[in-house]
Amino acid sequence: MTLLQVGNIAKSYAGVQALKSASFELRAGEVHALIGENGAGKSTLIKIITGAVEADSGEINLDGQPIQDNSPQLAKSLGIAAIYQQPALFPELTVAENIALGVEQTSSWRPINWKARHVRATELLAQVGANISTDALAGELTMPQQQLVEIARALGANARVLIFDEPTASLSEEDTQNLFRVIGELRARGAGIVYISHRLDELPIIADRVTVLRDGVTIETRQMADVDRQELIRLMVGRELSAVFPKREVTLGKTVLEVSNLTCREAGIRDISFTVRAGEILGLAGLVGAGRTELARTLFGLTPADSGEIRLRGQAVKIASPAQAAQLGIAYVPEDRRQHGVILELPIAANTTLASLRNLAKFGFLDFAAERELAADYASRLGVKTPALFATAGTLSGGNQQKVALSRWLATKPSVLILDEPTQGIDVGAKSEIHSLMGELAEQGLAILMISSELPEILGMSDRVAVMHAGRIAATFDRAEASQQTILAAALGH
Known about the structure:
Largest sheet: 6 strands, mixed
Number of helices: 17
Number of domains: 2
Strand order of the largest sheet: 6-7-8-3-9-10
Mean pLDDT: 86
CATH superfamily of the largest domain: P-loop containing nucleotide triphosphate hydrolases
């Protein structure tokens, strides 16, 4: 039975066509995957379905009845809910209070039944298998716990259509499997699930059907069992990707970065030693909590080391702050690009030049012409898709935001580039572009340290792989000897 029908939705922003003709049908008890490159229109379509954005044309039907004058309140009342990659909870409120915001009908004269609120929250959390205190502050929960709270809130509001937007991007394998279990239970109850993910390998496990968007248009809807990964990629990008991981053969130069017995108690890393040569991509693998991001932050001066030695081009250096790291030629593109990689409210040009303002100043004043020239140069080099450089970074797709974050640090002319999850949450086409760019940078002699939770990416892009376990480097493998089995064994401490 068709639960939700989306027909020929179109939407434009300031002359840019985000959606041209997007259509799909969601059945009750179905997990329907919605995929496409960043910029294909998925986010806009979600916002229209949930009432956050008004469509220019097209229609949405629920149970065969048209939804008129949609709004977030109306969508919620009709049982439509979205669970985003970054959960939308109030961090200063308790779990029970956050759930109540989506469930309770409040009024100024009616007293709050605190006991009933906690009892109801406990019941809903139990339904999703979450062992979380209802008194805990939402801001103190882990990402998987926050997602479960959002799902519980949606259940309390009797949601029948649940939209999951990149739900596993920041989850461990164990947390992913638990989420899949919860989704399976929701499906068994007759809920319709729209599942958006760039992790194509997940789709055969969780999805019944898949709809592909490209350039704001629905390309095709297929049974998941009838389509393989390569066919999905072809449908998404409209072309064959010559190589999933376009690793270039680069002649390695001298050692650029040498780390010896590095320890930072605050970061939880101990006795870290490794080298990276000019033109080399050193992959840094490990399980969540192994200390990979913590190591990157120490190298960049965010959590300065307690002991050990860092040498750049043979010279011992002390890095006590990000400013010092940048001056020494170390660039760091963090994992969370929306929080730390780009400033969403600033224009693309300002984001690009933020780390290079000293070089763009004349007599103490910013040379805006030079800023625009530099930003345009990097936007062209990296293929940033935007109608204008004065557009804010928040209007860009995830892949283009990542390119802007890269541009900012490449503009500083670094010799060491640290990339923390460089392709997390971006589509296969943008991933291929980022990978190609990494190859070009390696050819130019950059020493690259790449942190990734995706083993195929680690294996496909790295010249060597260092594996972290419990704050230490447990093993290092050459490209030829690295495999998923050897990396996982080292990551588990075996």
